[in-house]
Write a structure and sequence with these properties.
- 41% of the residues lie in helices and 18% in strands.
- The chain is built from 16 helices and 17 strands.
- The strands form five sheets. An eight-stranded parallel beta barrel has the order 2-3-4-5-6-10-13-14, surrounded by five helices.
- Helix 13 links the parallel strand 13 (334-338) and strand 14.
- The structure holds beta-D-fucopyranose.
- Beta-D-fucopyranose binds next to loops.
Length: 441
């Protein structure tokens, strides 16, 4: 039986990612709180993973004890700026403490400035629909960076602007629950402008900073590559879901099947590419699906599906995504800002993890400039519209008792982080069912 270890370059970042509203609890001053109270989500976030109550400390101990050397977390705008005319210095101090303690544990922090939530006062002003958000987000960024730059130089301005806009303004499953094609690109254009304002503000305050955003990148392939209508539908979906931000940053013009908006201030505003990859879709032309522009996305028969069938374990899609990024932005460092799978029993996660780390190792060996990997997530947390039905954590959580339970994947990830690589022994121990795929004899 073959044996060996796939090592990563020295200094590779290994960690997990979290987001304020999903882990902190008690965030009662943002648009998601209101949305939950109105009954739009499956559950309420409540205490979430109780980080604001102090449990961040035990969770970052877990990260440190298991060899993680990086952590991506987000700052809750509604805590820092509870109303338009007020900054909360205690909240800022709390985040300073968290970052300081991450540093003390040799964990490099990456801070996200916007991860889906908006302060209520901002929503009342029109949220990302109003152009006023651009300078407001710039000011918020300044305040945060002035306070936290002592401990952080790796910044993610906005998480998944495409998901924010599509879910909130087309599918209506995120606040504000609208369905208006014009608003989708208008909101995305303002997010590009906000991102660009933040990019410049950060560099002014901290010239050595590395700044980017995190794109939810969902590759698609045509169900029948010989059939032009499948290919056409695949291209429309690919562009519509993925391309608004990348086109703005590359060319200064936001291009999407929904329209075209010049955003010259966005051009060139990224120091790394933040990639969130979960799964890949197969797209087929379907005359019956009028509301979905005559196409349907699905996972083919025999796919390696997670609990709720929402994600398929598809590491080839990850390879495809990494190659796409490297071709689109030659030489730009790549950070995998999220990758993970919902799996309460840890049935599929060990092989998901091993196969994705293996795909990433192959990409590194083709000289793709990948610098780090953040697994989503450290501990189970509140999964937006799906509430507590989705379990993405390396540690399980009972939200009622706040009890944590380590899943086997946490040990596998610890072994990977400590070794800075993936070994045949690890695969043999945690997911022997894919040994042949990763170490063919
Ligand atoms: C991503 C989000 C993150 C989490 C994971 C499962 O789209 O950025 O907050 O919900 O999905």
């Amino acid at each position: 039986m073959p044996s060996g270890t796939f090592h990563f370059p020295k200094g590779f970042l290994w960690g997990t990612a979290t987001a304020s509203h999903q882990v902190e609890g008690g965030n009662t001053n943002n648009n998601w709180y209101k949305w939950e109270q109105e009954g739009h989500s499956s559950h309420k976030s409540g205490l979430a993973s109780d980080w604001w109550g102090g449990r961040w400390k035990e969770d970052i101990d877990r990260a440190a004890d298991t060899g993680q050397n990086a952590h991506r977390l987000s700052i809750e705008w509604s805590r820092i700026q509870p109303s338009l005319d007020r900054w909360d210095v205690d909240a800022l101090e709390r985040y300073r403490q968290i970052l300081r303690e991450l540093r003390e544990r040799n964990i490099t922090p990456m801070v996200t400035l916007h991860h889906f939530t908006d302060p209520l006062w901002l929503s009342e002003l029109g949220g990302w629909e109003t152009n006023a958000v651009v300078p407001l987000f710039g000011n918020f960024t300044r305040k945060v960076v002035e306070t936290l730059k002592e401990y952080c130089s790796l910044w993610c301005t906005i998480n998944e602007p495409n998901v924010y806009a599509l879910n909130g303004y087309l599918r209506g499953i995120f606040p504000p629950g609208k369905s208006d094609l014009n608003l989708v690109i208008h909101v995305q254009a303002n997010m590009v402008r906000g991102h660009a304002a933040a990019y410049r503000a950060i560099h002014e305050l901290q010239p050595e900073a590395r700044v980017g955003y995190a794109l939810h990148f969902r590759p698609q392939k045509p169900a029948r590559s010989w059939f032009p209508l499948d290919r056409m539908m695949r291209n429309i979906k690919f562009e519509g879901i993925n391309m608004a931000f990348p086109s703005s940053i590359s060319t200064g013009v936001l291009q999407s099947p929904l329209g075209r908006i010049p955003v010259p201030e966005g051009k060139g505003t990224q120091d790394f590419f933040g990639l969130n990859y979960y799964t890949m879709d197969t797209v087929i032309f379907d005359l019956r699906k009028r509301s979905e522009l005559f196409s349907r996305s699905f996972f083919p028969h025999g796919s390696d599906l997670a609990d709720a069938g929402m994600h398929s374990n598809y590491p080839e899609g990850f390879s495809w995504a990494l190659t796409w990024v490297a071709k689109t932005y030659p030489n730009l460092p790549i950070l995998v800002t999220e990758n993970g799978i919902e799996d309460s029993t840890d049935r599929i996660r060990p092989r998901f993890l091993a196969q994705h780390v293996h795909a990433m190792w192959r990409a590194v060996n083709f000289n793709l400039p990948i610098r780090g990997y953040f697994h989503w997530s450290l501990v189970d947390n509140f999964e937006w519209n799906l509430g507590w039905t989705q379990r993405f954590g390396l540690w399980g959580l009972n939200p009622d008792t706040q009890e944590r339970t380590k899943r086997p994947s946490a040990d596998l990830f610890a072994a990977i982080c400590k070794e800075n690589g993936l070994s045949s022994e690890m695969v043999q121990k945690y997911c022997p069912e894919v040994f042949e795929k990763i170490f063919p004899g």
